[in-house]
């Protein structure tokens, strides 16, 4: 298992890699939202970048790239224009998003000098589902007064609560006439279905997954309980949707069954965020859960393959790649994040203990 971390502009770093040398790309690039006024989030990756990524990826190699709901289309179009085939979209659903919505009624009353009725105290630490929705710097649990006005604009806002991030599943075109021939030549072209199946709880669960059984059809099919045309000994077929704890809990309450376990991935804990860091704390605002990244790495990477993350950030993909036994190449422009990623990746075995 080899690791190589490269500091600097990722397009220049990509040019140093030989063509057809990477088995998969798992990355969380800028969304082009100027998130928290971060300079690195000024735009989505360009066509030029994706062309270099395409060059180093083996034919049939897959990409999993996170995107923002407002700018996902721009990223995907750039990938497609660079030559990638868009295969699917995985939806990561979470309950901890913070609604950045302007209270139009309150702003209207402030502008007009209208009095507002105080109806009680508020707390920014929890949302309606019980999930934390404070800002990512950890400065939540702030109290404030909840007020109510009487204008026609009361109750109106400007945005929805963010609760999902799309992940683009793309593939470099095959070099051979068939998938099988491509896999034989390059080892790439397919996804690891059996390695990412959801294990059965018990024999009853397995029996319920059989095609034609009561629990494999009807309403339960909307939760992915139906396993497909044939039952598999390893578990249920992986789906293109993933939940965190908050959204999983909400689904289970509404469905009356443990539907969420078919799509569940835990969110980042404070210990996971800062494990192994002494001087620098991991303050990256868009940190992804390691167990989510291990699943994504396993889904599209062949055995002993090399994973590339050209937007390494704080190194969660690198940790995940090491935990799964893959080779890893990471690229990062920001020197502070590079040091954090390097420190976290170097102690990946400690994360194995933490995630057990």
Task: Give me a quick take on this structure.
The chain is α/β, with parallel strands linked by helices.
What does this structure look like?
This protein has 356 residues and is α/β, with parallel strands linked by helices. It has three domains: 244 residues, 3-Layer(aba) Sandwich (Rossmann fold), CATH 3.40.50; 67 residues, no CATH class; 37 residues, no CATH class. Helices cover 29% and strands 18% of the residues. It contains twelve helices and ten strands. Strands 1-10-9-2-3-7-4-8 form an eight-stranded mixed sheet. The protein has a two-stranded antiparallel sheet with strand order 5-6. Strand 2, helix 2 and strand 3 form a beta-alpha-beta unit. Helix 9 crosses helix 10. The longest helix has 12 residues. The radius of gyration is 22 Å and the shape is globular. About 10% of the residues have low confidence.
